[in-house]
């Protein structure tokens, strides 16, 4: 049995995504893999819920709640005890570290667990290689390398000639750079409806499907079917009294995940019947169209890694952009 400790220099860097994606890929290779998050800030840690939803992870006795931000000897002992229970009958245990503890404490924890280590960092054009030196010092020979996450399509060349090149010059091993992907920012229809306080007008449709794009009806000079067909997996926000736009959204190529009908106006029967035939959920909200879009601004920014479609997409990105083979080889026993 081998342990891998995954940490980052900040929250939101992509630790959970990497842990779950790696567990998924190693499981596909025939390994028995589980995830363990030793330190949490509350009993209902959202990352633990993600492990359970996407990997059916059994949780017993962890995470250990700690608000101090430091690893005491007592806490270290509790973590080691919990890790022993988690590791039973497993080939690999992936340990998601806390971004709230120091690099030195992270190194102490990895040493106590006899774990290899990977550091995840969110890409920024302002980030410099020397910022990672603390991890080199903390993990020493346990460090397998760094994963740079969230490189936008416009920064790919700059990241290679800038941060990644400077890391290589400093003797820091990059395991890969993962590009941004729209699907990973998506939310489900249910999450969107709950955020808006919406009301479903029918029982049909996939309320768990992902919304990747928000589109507003009546905001384009192009014919509706062409305009809506630009983006797939779209939620269309439209006034409830515009059946022409609603039908265009339902008829456009690609997938309309849902229609959000504003101003509290229900659609005419023909539109509702068509939506039921196409299995498109209809969400009724009392707010106007502009107010609804303002309410949705914050929703897409806080999408979590909590959907099977996100796991499949991120796992594919890992296979394409991360040296998963090097990580898997390093985790082989002996």
Structure summary:
The protein is an alpha/beta fold. The chain has helices spanning 15-28, 46-55, 73-87, 103-113, 133-139, 156-161, 163-169, 189-196, 224-228, 243-251, 269-278, 289-301, 308-321, 324-330, and strands spanning 2-8, 33-36, 39-40, 64-65, 92-96, 116-122, 143-151, 174-179, 187-188, 199-200, 210-211, 213-216, 234-239, 256-262, 282-284.
Would you give an account of this structure?
By secondary structure, the chain is an alpha/beta fold. The chain has 2 domains: 2-184 and 305-330, P-loop containing nucleotide triphosphate hydrolases (Rossmann fold, 3-Layer(aba) Sandwich); 187-301, Udp-n-acetylmuramoylalanyl-d-glutamate--2,6- Diaminopimelate Ligase, Chain: A, domain 1. It contains 14 helices and 15 strands. It has helices at 15-28, 46-55, 73-87, 103-113, 133-139, 156-161, 163-169, 189-196, 224-228, 243-251, 269-278, 289-301, 308-321, 324-330; strands at 2-8, 33-36, 39-40, 64-65, 92-96, 116-122, 143-151, 174-179, 187-188, 199-200, 210-211, 213-216, 234-239, 256-262, 282-284. Strands 2-5-1-6-7-8 form a 6-stranded parallel sheet, sandwiched between helices. It starts with a strand and ends with a helix.
Topology:
Layout: E1 2-8, H1 15-28, E2 33-36, E3 39-40, H2 46-55, E4 64-65, H3 73-87, E5 92-96, H4 103-113, E6 116-122, H5 133-139, E7 143-151, H6 156-161, H7 163-169, E8 174-179, E9 187-188, H8 189-196, E10 199-200, E11 210-211, E12 213-216, H9 224-228, E13 234-239, H10 243-251, E14 256-262, H11 269-278, E15 282-284, H12 289-301, H13 308-321, H14 324-330
Parallel strand pairs: 1-5, 1-6, 2-5, 3-4, 6-7, 7-8, 12-13, 13-14, 14-15
Antiparallel strand pairs: 9-11, 10-15
Helix pairs in contact: 1-2, 1-13, 4-5, 10-11
């Amino acid at each position: 049995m081998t342990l891998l400790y995954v940490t980052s220099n900040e929250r939101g860097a992509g630790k959970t995504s990497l842990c779950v994606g790696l567990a998924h890929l190693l499981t596909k290779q025939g390994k028995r893999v589980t995830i363990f998050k030793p330190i949490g800030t509350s009993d209902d840690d959202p990352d633990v819920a993600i492990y359970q939803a996407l990997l059916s992870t059994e949780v017993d006795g962890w995470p250990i709640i700690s608000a101090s931000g430091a690893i005491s000897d007592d806490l270290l002992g509790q973590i080691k005890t919990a890790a022993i229970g988690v590791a039973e009958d497993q080939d690999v245990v992936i340990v998601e570290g806390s971004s709230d503890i120091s690099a030195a404490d992270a190194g102490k924890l990895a040493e106590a667990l006899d774990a290899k280590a990977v550091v995840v960092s969110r890409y920024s054009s302002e980030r410099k290689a020397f910022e990672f030196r603390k991890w080199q010092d903390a993990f020493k020979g346990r460090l397998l390398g760094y994963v740079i996450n969230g490189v936008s399509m416009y920064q790919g060349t700059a990241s290679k000639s800038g941060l990644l090149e400077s890391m290589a010059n400093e003797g820091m091993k990059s395991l890969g750079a993962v590009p941004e992907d729209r699907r990973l920012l998506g939310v489900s229809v249910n999450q969107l409806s709950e955020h808006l306080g919406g009301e479903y007008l029918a029982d049909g449709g996939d309320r768990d499907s992902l919304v990747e794009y928000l589109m507003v009806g009546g905001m384009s000079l192009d014919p509706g079917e062409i305009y809506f067909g630009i983006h797939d997996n779209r939620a269309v926000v439209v006034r409830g009294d515009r059946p022409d736009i609603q039908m265009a959204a339902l008829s456009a190529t690609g997938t309309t995940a849902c229609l959000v009908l504003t101003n509290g106006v229900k659609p005419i029967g023909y539109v509702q019947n068509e939506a039921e035939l196409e299995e498109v959920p209809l969400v009724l909200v009392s707010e106007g169209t502009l107010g609804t879009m303002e309410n949705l601004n914050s929703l897409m920014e806080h999408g979590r890694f909590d959907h099977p479609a996100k796991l499949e997409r991120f796992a594919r990105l890992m296979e394409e952009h991360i040296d998963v083979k090097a990580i898997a080889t390093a985790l082989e026993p002996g």
